[in-house]
């Protein structure tokens, strides 16, 4: 087993790369990033389906400390985001600290030594004074529990595990799901498929996507005058942040956005019967709002059919509903992710042998979405209550990264072995989140991945992102219990 490392980070997506980069910049050299895959990138490595792109403008969907002025488009495509992450890792010295093909199976807090014992697949183990989970919320594909799914004789795969060897040309293809991935996939494969059947359980709100390529002179100007890039970033941030009022405080303010949706639908779907099936039956914003200019036109193509009858089972030859059978050659499951497990399927054991699963029975809880009582020196990035419906998650991640840096600095400066958020502080935060959640559009009665099985919303931040940044400006010593380090095991962290 290695000697204890200062910080071990699990995952190399935006959270893991950003955390490692800021630690290294602050002088923490003993940083290890554990990545189960052969390459970095998280969700932008895994989701390589046709049309994969971000729905947040590129100037804001990037780190403030790693400016990129030559994005190809206003909304960046998957391959460009992945290349950006590789560039950040290289330029900020993170790559030598990543151990690829190293899957974490669990971690146990050793109170006597004040370290985390991190277990990896194959029987390896590392020790960490500080453990940071940067696994994200959308990394475990969810396959629907449909009778007969395993008996399908054709080709089938989840959108996040795209089978690039599957030839869709002239084939009968079924896409199950109409969420964020499906609305990007359908327009891309519709021209190639011989017949495309889209199975919709719940209609999404789809509004226009003001995307365009950046001109060469624009990119040159942004590079020559960095202040213009900062101004563009600020403008996008403010325009998106203004929508928070409708999401978290006054849902009736979503009405103008709903009118925009209806105008978009009317202009792109003239058939009133098809249009009626594409109107959601829940308040706008209760589920994720989607952006696309080509999804509705794709549904109007010859050979494309939208099915809204519930699926009853999968047969060896296709998909069956109560009314009809659809023979297909390929089934694509665009059915989202298991979003409420956070660190699953890892087994995390804190003080007194308590597991994180036990602590989170009834829903995930973490103070500021970052620290969990009973799990000292464990920090979560993109944890509960930190997802957004209106702005860039990178902004939220940078707030969390700064908070974790503050905790690492405190460990060194005060000579502490560990800090552990007090249970009453965590409980008060959770109660406050649930109080605020009652006025949000996410609590308006629909079912979404933002919720636990019993309907509790635990994924989203019920406020402004600048309020979250203020709340995470620095750790409050009054929020923590602590133990001093033994002289034999000094804590190394950010130099003072």
From TrEMBL:
InterPro entries per UniProt: FAD-bind_Monooxygenase_sf, FAD/NAD-bd_sf
Xref: SUPFAM superfamilies: FAD/NAD(P)-binding domain
A Pfam family per the record: Pyr_redox_3
Residues in coiled coil: none
Protein name in the entry: NAD(P)/FAD-dependent oxidoreductase
């Amino acid at each position: 087993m290695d000697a204890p490392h200062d910080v071990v980070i699990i995952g190399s997506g935006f959270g893991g790369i950003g955390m490692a980069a800021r630690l290294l910049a602050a002088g923490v050299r003993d940083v290890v990033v554990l990545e189960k895959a052969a390459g970095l990138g998280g969700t932008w490595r895994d989701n390589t389906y046709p049309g994969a792109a971000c729905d947040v403008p590129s100037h804001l969907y990037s780190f403030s400390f790693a400016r990129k002025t030559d994005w190809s488009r206003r909304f960046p495509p998957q391959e460009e985001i992945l290349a950006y992450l590789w560039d950040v890792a290289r330029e900020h010295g993170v790559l030598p600290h990543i151990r690829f093909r190293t899957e974490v199976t669990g971690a146990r807090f050793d109170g006597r030594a004040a370290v985390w014992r991190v277990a990896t697949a194959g029987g390896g183990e590392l020790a960490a004074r500080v453990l940071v989970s940067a696994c994200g919320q959308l990394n475990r594909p969810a396959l629907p529990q449909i009778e007969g799914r395993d008996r399908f004789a054709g080709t089938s795969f989840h959108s996040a595990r795209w089978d690039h060897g599957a030839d869709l040309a002239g084939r009968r293809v079924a896409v199950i799901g109409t969420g964020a991935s499906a609305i990007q996939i359908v327009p891309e494969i519709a021209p190639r498929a011989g017949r495309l059947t889209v199975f919709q359980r719940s209609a999404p709100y789809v509004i226009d996507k003001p995307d365009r390529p950046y001109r060469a002179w624009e990119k040159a100007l942004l590079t020559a005058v960095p202040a213009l890039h900062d101004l563009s970033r600020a403008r996008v941030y403010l325009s998106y942040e203004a929508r928070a009022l409708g999401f978290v405080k006054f849902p009736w303010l979503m009405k103008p956005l709903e009118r925009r949706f209806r105008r978009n639908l009317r202009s792109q779907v003239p058939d009133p019967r098809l249009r009626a099936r594409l109107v959601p039956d829940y308040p706008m914003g209760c589920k994720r709002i989607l952006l696309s200019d080509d999804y509705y036109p794709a549904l109007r193509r010859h050979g494309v059919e939208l099915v809204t009858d519930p699926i009853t089972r999968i047969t060896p030859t296709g998909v069956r509903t109560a009314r009809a059978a659809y023979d297909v050659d390929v089934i694509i499951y665009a059915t989202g992710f298991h979003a409420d497990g956070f660190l699953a399927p890892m087994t995390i054991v804190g003080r007194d042998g308590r597991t994180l699963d036990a602590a989170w029975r009834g829903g995930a809880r973490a103070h500021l979405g970052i620290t969990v009582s009973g799990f000292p020196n464990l920090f979560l990035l993109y944890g509960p209550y930190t997802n957004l419906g209106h702005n860039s998650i990178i902004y939220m991640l940078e707030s969390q990264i700064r908070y974790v840096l503050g905790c690492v600095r405190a460990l060194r400066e005060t000579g502490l072995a560990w800090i552990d958020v007090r249970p009453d502080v965590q409980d008060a935060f959770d109660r406050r989140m649930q109080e605020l959640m009652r006025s949000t559009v996410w609590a308006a009665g629909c079912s979404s991945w933002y919720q636990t099985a019993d309907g509790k919303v635990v994924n989203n931040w019920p406020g402004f992102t600048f309020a979250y940044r203020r709340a995470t400006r620095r750790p409050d010593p009054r929020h923590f219990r602590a133990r001093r380090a033994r002289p034999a095991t000094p804590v190394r962290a950010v130099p003072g």
